[in-house]
Design a protein that fits this description.
Layout lengths: L11 H10 L3 H10 L14 H9 L9 E2 L9 E11 L2 E12 L2 E5 L9 E2 L9 E4 L8
Antiparallel strand pairs: 1-6, 2-3, 2-6, 3-4, 4-5
Helix pairs in contact: 1-2, 1-3
């Protein structure tokens, strides 16, 4: 799985979906826009429904609920994570990233444009709030 860089400030949900689907950011954005999902909409990073809809369009199965983050070891092999979680007024906001475990290696694909490396292994720096498990091709963990 390869990182995909977001092209808009609030495009992290589109980029995370693109990474999971194995498509480019422009392709994921085209599909998202066709579904009425736009990077300019702040709901993209304050609500899970848009990313759920986009992943469904790519036929990617995910958990129907969010699970609280407990530890890196407790995460499933593939998950969407909410990091940089905060409240702005009465609304939560976060940055979407993709967690991947391959054997003994774990890393995060982070779409933030200004990063020098989009494959992050500095897990101790991130403070996830919750995650959504991404299932394999058969809809199971």
């Amino acid at each position: 799985m390869e990182p995909v860089i977001q092209e808009e400030t609030s495009g992290c949900g589109i980029a995370a979906s693109a990474a999971l689907a194995g498509v480019s950011y422009p392709e994921a954005k085209r599909v998202a826009n066709g579904l009425g999902i736009h990077a300019e909409d702040k709901a993209l990073w304050s609500d899970t429904e848009h990313v759920r809809t986009l992943l469904s369009a790519f036929q990617i199965s995910i958990s129907p609920t969010e699970s609280p983050f407990e530890s890196w070891k407790a995460l499933p092999d593939k998950a969407l994570l909410s990091i940089k979680w905060r409240m702005e007024g009465d609304k939560p906001f976060w940055h979407w990233v993709v967690f991947v475990r391959q054997g003994e290696r774990s890393f995060v694909l982070d779409s933030k444009k200004s990063l020098t490396s989009h494959i992050r292994r500095d897990l101790w720096r991130m403070k996830p709030k919750w995650y959504i498990e991404v299932y394999d091709d058969y809809g199971t963990a």
